[in-house]
Amino acid sequence: MTSSATQPPAHPGDGCHGETPDRLAAFAETWCRAVYPGTATSMTRAEFKDLLTALAGRLASALRADPFDPSPGHAVGQELVRAHCTAPEILPRVLEVLDTRLAASCGADAALGQDRARNRCVRLQHALAEGFAQALRERTRKEQEALSRAALDAQTEIARALHESETRFRAVFKDAALGIGIADMAGNILDVNSALGRMFGSASRVRSRNVLEWTHPDDSPEVWRMQRELMNGERDHYQVEKPYARPDGTVLWTNLTVSLLRDAEGNPRYMLAMLEDISERRLLNLRLRYQATHDALTDLPNRSFFFERLEQALAPGSGCSRIGLCYLDLDGFKAVNDSLGHAMGDQLLIGVAERLQACASGPGQMLARIGGDEFVALVTNPSSPAAVTALAERALDALSTPVSVGERELMVRASIGVVEGPAKDLTSAEVLRSADITMYRAKAEGGNRYVLADPDADARAISRHHLTHHLPAALRGCEFFIEYQPLVKMEDGSLEGAEALVRWSHPRHGVLGPDRFIPLAEHTGLIVPLGRWVLQEAVRQARRWQVSRIGGHRPLKINVNLSPRQLHHPDLVEDTVTVLEEAGLPPDALCLEVTETAMIQADEQELKPLRELADLGVGIALDDFGTGYSNLANLRHLPASTLKLDRSFTEGLQQEPADPVDLKIVEGIVSLAHTLQLSVTVEGVETSSQASQLRELGCDTAQGWYYARPGPPERLPQAV
User: Fold this and answer.
1) Nearest-angstrom CA–CA distance, 305 and 578
2) Could you read off the pLDDT of 532-568 as tens digits, one per residue?
3) In whole angstroms, what is the distance from residue 375 CA to residue 353 CA?
4) Strand 619-625 with 642-645, pairing
5) Pairing with 506, which of 22, 325, 439, 663 sits 20 to 30 Å away (CA)?
6) What does DSSP assign to residue 101?
7) 332: left (phi > 0), else alpha (psi -120 to 50), else beta?
8) Phi, psi at residue 234, to the nearest 5°?
9) Is 583 helix (H, G, I), strand (E, B) or coil?
10) Which is it for the CA torsion 583, 584, 588, 589, positive or negative?
């Protein structure tokens, strides 16, 4: 058969990025050898091979496509039926060839990895089998319609053309590949063809039965409701998948179509049943379904099957009132893979899976492997919350002894997040997210333990996660802005400068202070571009202030915070100099604030950039002084020009009278700083009494709400 109806349409994108024409042709030749002898096609062998080459190209393209879509497999299955590849042995041979040769023929193993390529190949096989079955059913339906018309013609034309119609009907009836039976309206089987007799062992055994006797425990109530409606003349046909018990004890699965035959007056006369044996195809589909829903390494249910079961449990009307979840991740598994190899890691996972399976084998419990070393146990309708934590305890106990892998004994530890609650209040995504967050809390607490879900802790973790992932977009989208807090010269109360304090105008959470996002930016490395942006904006603002101030006033200084990660960045000096030069601001108008802890912990190599900047005239302030564990003797060796005294030292000065111990401490620090030729800035000044006492103690500059709160740049000149 060479007509265009049997040839797949040409696709410009057919073929696979990784295969060569030779490899694809070799695959098509193997496919042709396996299939062609059993086909009923009128194509020559060369024509049939050309068809298979085109179909192989479509499968290869689908296998490597991103995103992956198995639907081309469905179309290929239909093309095979159109090419008359319908013998019972054809589909298993096709699937066997795809299973063993497809991934290798298009290089998918190398491009995708063996497990991913294998999973995609299984899904393509499944889609091909479905397309094949659908096309075969459609073809069968058309045959059935033809048979029904022939049978009806035979009954209605019996008076004037009985012999001709009977001959035609008998020819179709006898030679059909489908099993066909005719019964009267009481259900008594009148005749069957040889194909139906072979399905059940013998035709005589079938003729001795009534249709209503062919029940099976797996029958749906819907089947017999439709059968009664047909026998009552209320419907003309129905089609279902139905199992039958064979005399040898096996089960015959069929695609059953039953049609009502009426006489010339429209009265029901006979029932015509057509049965297609789909036992092998159903077993194949079950095997493919198992492969698609189970982990190839451990044979446990996989992630997709777990989510399917979880969503079923959470669905309204499921009968599940509460659920429990234990989300388990092995501690230090990566070290096993890195040191002993992936093969040893795989064997360890198999051993762990066997132990965990024994812990979660009770009623309503299911264990799945959902990631590399991640397992999850689902408990439906637990008797109590304690039943779920007991499962977590059993899992930890099962892993408390070493796992034998080859000649090694490997210790295994695990962290488990436990979630338990009413099914109606939860969604599958919420359950797994909460369990995942809780599991990481268990890891953070040292691992080898389970931790119960805490909604408040979940909310904080989700907020941190959201902020962390939104940080890059926030920097690109100009969601950050700077407020400035005045630095006041205590000698005469004049404005010395200002500290630049970055804020985040978050679209959902409003204005966030640096304590909410600076640690996240530090952790992700975004602190470097964020810090450079703050430096640029603050220096430009300082230059604008300098240009706008009345002659005779000294330039305002700008203080900018420098994080530990910025301190270690190799371009710190170059970036700072570039920013100053671009803005036209002299170096001595800039002061970089570095925390006491970061500066004390830095070695000489790490302090080198600060020394270079100090040599250029940039001020260096030791921020939050007194909160760390510095040795005061180290101060003389640091490139600092200013000590910023933490507010904790001045809180005692708010009392009346002031705490004498705090007075002595501040007095001693100020004296030491001045001896080392360091100026002293005090943070957190909130009262006039504090300001007076700090001035008497010799502090040089101060900032705090007593003078002004942080605000926009245009408010600064009027702040004091």
Assistant:
1) 57
2) 999 999 999 999 988 876 434 567 899 999 988 888 8
3) 8
4) parallel
5) 439
6) I
7) left
8) -90, -10
9) helix
10) negative
